[in-house]
Amino acid sequence: MANGMGSVARILYKELVRGDLRKLKAESNDSDSGGGARDFRFRSFDVLLPVIQKMFPQSSQEKRRRNGQSVVIDIYKGRFFWRDSGNNVVSKESFFEPPTSARPGEGRIAKVHEYPCFDASNVNVGFGNRVLLLLIQLDDGAVWPYYAEETTLRTPGVWHPDVARELLDCLDAIRPASQATLGFRDFTNSGRYCNGR
């Protein structure tokens, strides 16, 4: 979190790609054949699960289709907090769904275009300016979504140095060019994950 914004307990982060921005604008259906789910997907769900359960600490059972059948699954629930245009703190119930049968390793936050906290109207994803979605959980348990542009992470004084270094170390780690950065850091213990490591 930016300097002076409180104590960070943990951060879950993923690099955004251009398709993610289309999802936020509800423009992700690229053909008449369907598709274009408007969700943020997080691969390595099993590894991320301990952090997800802390950020989305409640659960509810919901019916979903898995392998062509209706089944009951656990949906993780929490709240997202953000400041509106008047600088007032607002919140909305948030949900994290476990993997589907079609994408067995990916959990997701569905219907991201319905969350005002994910407004990305000023976010530019492009060469030399990678952007991370950050879910930042404070010591009080509140989860605040943010976007962090690589350029601001590399600018001293914009982000807390421990947070900036953690994110930059993962962005700079060697990985396949086709793989977006994904990870978490739990500052309450030694928990961390970066691009499969």
Model description:
The chain is α+β, with helices and mostly antiparallel strands and 197 residues long. The protein has one domain: At1g16640 B3 domain, CATH 2.40.330. The protein contains 4 helices and 10 strands. A 5-stranded antiparallel beta sheet has the order 8-7-1-9-10, sandwiched between helices. The longest helix has 12 residues. The chain is globular and about 50 Å long. The relative contact order is 0.24. About 4% of the residues have low confidence.
Question: How does the SSE layout of this entry go?
Answer:
Elements: E1 8-16, H1 18-24, E2 39-42, H2 45-55, E3 58-66, E4 69-83, E5 89-96, E6 107-110, E7 131-138, E8 143-149, H3 150-153, H4 161-172, E9 182-186, E10 192-194
Characterize this entry briefly.
With 197 residues, this protein is α+β, with helices and mostly antiparallel strands. It has helices at residues 18-24, 45-55, 150-153, 161-172; strands spanning 8-16, 39-42, 58-66, 69-83, 89-96, 107-110, 131-138, 143-149, 182-186, 192-194.
